[in-house]
Each structure stands twice: as structure tokens, then as C-alpha cells.
């Protein structure tokens, strides 16, 4: 190539500067190389060894490399995910709820689904099938659940006989104890699967024409996810990042226990409902107006929330004491969760209450209410804030606290009240 690089066996020729050899930038010693490459020899010597992770095999031909993803649910997020994934991959939409799958299939008919992204672009695609048949799980390389948390177990149980090894099962969001429920429903097969628990949904979205059109209003910059078993994290994250695109960035959380204890719904929803509707705050009479939910949090409700989140922190500390090396850094208290999630948006972060009161995303959101006589309103105490977030959120926290011997007086108080509202018997004596 007409260059002088190697002279007398040394990288000293006049054309070395035109190459990528370390010497081209003046590096001639190992220490200088390590500094330039940002390799910290001392830190690496102290670091524990990392387990080798399974990764996909290299591409060996130009033959088709089929990939099939199942998207579970029929709501906003499920329809958005189905349309987004179907643009590139074989995608099967699955709903086990009543006749939702048949209704969606009929609504779409021969047309394509139209998804408007928050970038302004529009995707036109169509799921390969919309069905209520769980046996399609046999085709799946990945299964994404975007259904209410009370339905997770139903899908796990239905898919269990058909799932193939190394199937990536992602739950958005996993809420609390999703990994444990997954293992319980799949039994011995769970060890061959990959569970991904997401902290939240990737997008704020809504359908504009049910079964036919949807819009992504905003995409999160990053979302936390944890993988069980942890050594499968590279494979699971490669799959999920490939499905979601550049954003949101899937950020690794060390364990699904951290995701479970971080669950804000387990604290916020039951806590605010109790703070407004417990016997000492509500006399049972209908109201003239619907009270604000987040922006209506006052001192009493804040004290309830601080009690609940403080008890979660006691659970976290106890686990970290008993299991040296267990990393639960993501199981933060509720105020820190607001700082992580809405930094720069809240106008007053001096307290938990002010974080909630001044969050613009909460503007005008009211308590779930039902119509009463005379144009008045009463609370809907069977809304998902209690029927879903108590059994699949708060009960995880209380159950683990009981195992650990951690006292939870505020959780007990809220749970005693909430179980009566939703007609369940959970906490006894």
C-alpha cells in the first residue's frame, strides 16, 4: 500500500501517524495505553468476576432469521406495541379477556393498523394474528405482557405448556413479585425461561380509534428493568432494545426484588385513597365536586405516604443486612422516585407533598368517583387503585415484611381499611 510503518521490526516508520496503532497518538508504554483506553487496572483487580452470559450466535448466512413476538392485552399499550413490533417482526396479539381478541380482529378487518409516533412519523402495519389461543406461545421468541397486574398469572399459566426454552417474557410493568409469580405458575419450566420485569410502560399512549389507530404521546428516555436469571441480561436486553428502538433506553436494575420494592403504585394509590376516604377523613356523605388526587394531597395524606414508603425502606434495609452483597439501590423511597421520574418538571421539590402537588403531569387528575343523587359524587372504592394495587403491590410489601419480622403499622392500617373496600380477607389479627 506504499506506506512505511514497520522499520527494523519497530512501529517507527513515518506513516505510523496515518494508522490506528497506539504509537500514532504518542503511546509507547503500557501505562500510557491503559490511561488512554480508560482501563483501571487497580479497580479491575478488586472487582468480582462476572459470569459469562449467553449471547445470540453470529450470523453465518444471509438466510432469513425469523423472530416471533407475542403481545398480550388489548388496551392502549398492547395495541401500540403490537403495531410497532409488527412493522419489523412476526407479531401475534393475544388477549384472553372475554371476546376482546375477536372484537379487535373484526374491527381491524382487512385494514392495516395505523400508529402515529411522537416523532411525527406514522407506522402502518398489521399483526400476523389476533387470537385468544394460548398455544401460539409455542412460536414465541419473546412474550410481552401489557395487561393489568391481576391478569399476569392467567397468562403465565395459559402459556406454560407451550413455551420454548430461552423465551424472553417481559412484563410492563411487573409491579411487585412478578418474577415469583412467574416461577410459581411455570414450575420446573421457569428455569429455562428469561423473565424481564419492567418498572413502567415505555410510552404514554392512547388509541384514537379502538382496534385501528393509536398515538404515542410521549416516549420515556429510559426505563428500569431487571432480568431473572441475571446471567441472561445481555440476551434479554438485546431483544427488548431491538423491539423498542433507540428510546426508551432499557437500563439495568440489579434484581427483580428492587423493581418490586420500587413499585410506586403499591404506596401512592392505596395511600392517597386512604388519606382521603378513611373514616377519620370522610363522613360518608356525597361531595359536590371530584377532589384532586395528586394535587389534593395534604398533610394527613402525606403522613400516610411517608409512613408507607418508610416501611418499604425498613424492608429493604433488613434484606440488605441479611444478604450481604444484595443490591437494592433502585428500591428508593417515594420522594426519590419522584426526583428520578419527574426531575425538572416539578416546581417545588421541598417535600413529598409538594412534589405531587406541583407535578404538571398530574394537573386536574381527580379521585375515581361515581355519580350520586343530586349531581353529587361518591368515591369508587373498587377502582383499580385498590382492587389492583393492594393485592399485587401492597400485599407483596406486607408479606415480605412479615417474613422478615419488620413491623409495618401504617401498612397494616391502610390494608385493614382497603381489604374491606374491595371485599377481600387478607390481613387477619
TrEMBL record:
<dbReference type="InterPro" id="IPR003421">
    <property type="entry name" value="Opine_DH"/>
</dbReference>
<dbReference type="GO" id="GO:0016491">
    <property type="term" value="F:oxidoreductase activity"/>
</dbReference>
<dbReference type="Pfam" id="PF02317">
    <property type="entry name" value="Octopine_DH"/>
</dbReference>
<dbReference type="InterPro" id="IPR051729">
    <property type="entry name" value="Opine/Lysopine_DH"/>
</dbReference>
<dbReference type="InterPro" id="IPR013328">
    <property type="entry name" value="6PGD_dom2"/>
</dbReference>
<protein>
    <recommendedName>
        <fullName>Opine dehydrogenase domain-containing protein</fullName>
    </recommendedName>
</protein>
<feature type="domain" description="Opine dehydrogenase">
    <location>
        <begin position="254"/>
        <end position="420"/>
    </location>
</feature>
<dbReference type="InterPro" id="IPR036291">
    <property type="entry name" value="NAD(P)-bd_dom_sf"/>
</dbReference>
<dbReference type="InterPro" id="IPR008927">
    <property type="entry name" value="6-PGluconate_DH-like_C_sf"/>
</dbReference>
Amino acid at each position: 500500500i506504499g506506506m512505511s510503518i514497520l522499520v527494523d521490526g519497530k512501529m517507527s516508520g513515518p506513516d505510523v501517524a496515518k494508522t490506528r496503532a497506539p504509537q500514532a497518538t504518542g503511546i509507547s508504554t503500557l501505562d500510557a495505553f491503559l490511561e488512554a483506553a480508560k482501563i483501571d487496572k487497580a479497580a479491575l483487580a478488586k472487582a468480582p468476576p462476572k459470569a459469562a452470559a449467553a449471547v445470540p450466535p453470529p450470523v453465518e448466512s444471509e438466510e432469513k432469521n425469523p423472530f416471533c413476538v407475542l403481545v398480550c392485552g388489548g388496551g392502549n399499550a398492547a395495541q401500540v406495541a403490537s403495531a410497532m413490533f409488527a412493522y419489523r417482526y412476526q407479531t401475534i396479539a393475544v388477549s384472553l379477556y372475554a371476546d376482546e381478541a375477536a372484537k379487535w380482529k373484526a374491527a381491524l378487518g382487512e385494514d392495516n393498523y395505523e400508529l402515529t409516533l411522537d416523532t411525527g412519523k406514522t407506522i402502518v402495519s398489521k399483526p400476523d394474528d389476533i387470537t385468544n389461543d394460548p398455544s401460539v406461545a409455542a412460536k414465541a421468541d419473546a412474550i410481552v405482557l401489557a395487561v393489568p397486574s391481576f391478569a399476569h398469572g392467567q397468562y403465565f399459566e395459559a402459556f406454560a405448556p407451550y413455551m420454548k426454552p430461552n423465551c424472553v417474557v417481559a412484563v410492563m410493568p411487573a409491579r411487585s413479585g412478578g418474577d415469583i409469580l412467574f416461577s410459581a405458575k411455570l414450575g420446573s419450566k421457569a428455569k429455562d425461561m428469561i423473565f424481564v420485569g419492567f418498572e413502567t410502560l415505555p410510552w404514554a399512549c392512547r388509541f384514537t380509534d379502538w382496534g385501528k389507530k393509536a398515538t404515542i404521546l410521549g416516549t420515556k428516555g429510559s426505563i428500569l428493568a431487571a432480568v431473572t436469571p441475571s446471567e441472561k441480561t445481555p440476551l434479554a436486553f438485546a431483544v427488548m432494545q431491538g423491539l423498542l428502538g433507540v428510546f426508551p433506553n432499557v437500563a439495568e436494575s440489579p434484581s427483580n426484588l428492587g423493581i418490586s420494592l420500587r413499585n410506586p403504585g403499591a404506596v401512592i394509590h392505596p395511600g392517597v385513597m386512604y388519606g382521603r376516604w378513611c373514616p377519620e377523613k370522610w363522613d360518608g356523605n356525597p361531595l359536590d365536586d371530584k377532589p384532586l388526587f395528586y394535587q389534593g394531597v395534604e398533610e394527613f395524606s402525606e403522613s400516610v405516604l411517608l409512613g408507607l414508603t418508610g416501611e418499604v425502606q425498613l424492608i429493604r434495609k433488613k434484606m440488605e443486612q441479611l444478604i450481604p452483597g444484595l443490591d437494592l439501590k433502585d428500591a428508593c423511597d417515594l420522594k426519590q422516585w419522584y426526583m428520578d421520574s419527574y426531575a425538572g418538571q416539578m416546581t417545588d421539590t421541598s417535600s413529598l407533598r409538594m412534589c405531587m402537588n406541583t407535578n404538571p403531569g398530574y394537573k386536574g387528575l381527580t379521585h375515581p368517583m361515581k355519580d350520586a343523587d343530586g349531581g353529587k359524587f361518591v368515591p369508587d372504592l373498587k377502582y383499580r387503585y385498590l382492587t389492583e394495587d393492594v393485592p399485587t403491590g401492597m400485599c407483596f410489601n406486607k408479606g415480605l415484611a412479615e417474613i422478615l419480622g419488620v413491623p409495618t403499622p401504617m401498612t397494616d392500617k391502610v390494608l385493614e381499611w382497603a381489604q374491606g373496600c374491595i371485599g377481600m380477607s387478607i390481613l387477619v389479627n
